[in-house]
Design a protein that fits this description.
Helices cover 47% and strands 23% of the residues. It is an alpha/beta fold. It folds into two domains: 10-95, Orthogonal Bundle (Arc Repressor Mutant, subunit A), CATH 1.10.10; 100-297, D-Maltodextrin-Binding Protein, domain 2 (3-Layer(aba) Sandwich), CATH 3.40.190. It is rod-shaped.
Length: 302
Amino acid sequence: MSLSPRVPDLAALDLLLSVIELGSLGRAAKAHGISQPSASSRIRYLEQLVGMPVLERTTLGSRPTAAGALIAEWARDVVDAAARLDAGIDTLRTQRDSRLRVAASQTIAEYLFPKWLMALRTRMPDTSIALESGNSAEVARAVLDGRAGIGFVESPQVPAELESHLVARDRLVVVVAAGHRWARGGAVTAEELAGTALIYREPGSGTRISFERAMTRVIPGWEPAVALELSSTQAIKTAVAEGMAPAVLSSLAVARELAEGVLVSPEVTGLDLHRDLRAVWPRGQRPTGPARDLYAIASRTV
């Protein structure tokens, strides 16, 4: 049903009720936090809509006309209903803001999310937050299935049903054991890397997808030689340190091992291993409540 254009808005009706209750346009304006000229303009708008005066101005204040008293009687139920609607919406927002489910790929979950969480806790200390960690493909499914209100992925590709927005940048690095020949200095070429069996994350991992895409841009038709496939970044670091084979991992994930000398990262030439980390949510929907705040915090990482 479409309302008639003669129906006044709630702000004008609420102001009329306040004028009648307080006996003065000036006192009503102050109660509503607006100037008296603004209040007068709002009452004139109401009178233009109904086609007749609703208030009589006197030296002692303002009182309703017969028509104004009748409109006020009808308006009281409308304004009360609007107040109940506002309270109900506020309750829904409180319930929404009391919990947040996040899905994040492993590198983001382990090395960036803890800092974001601390900042979000400062803003929203009463919000309960649950994190689901997986590879980028699993994060996309969690968001599409509604299990997570927002997701964070490392993969350069996301399903068409999701919107993605840059929140951080990362760089992939080749890592080897301290005793590996690549650890002795000198650069590794993209062609040399292409002919080497590496330790990989499982299919669907953002790290693996990003590396494979970077390689095929340089060497079309390249197919990876897999020495070992593991679903845990920590397991890959351990296998590399034991000398099993080189791997390509996020610089965030190996910063400590490189600083301690457990792993070594040789320079790689002819290959761009920079990548974007992105927040994702269902297309056509913007994050709200704590998901919106988390996105704002994460975006400051760039």
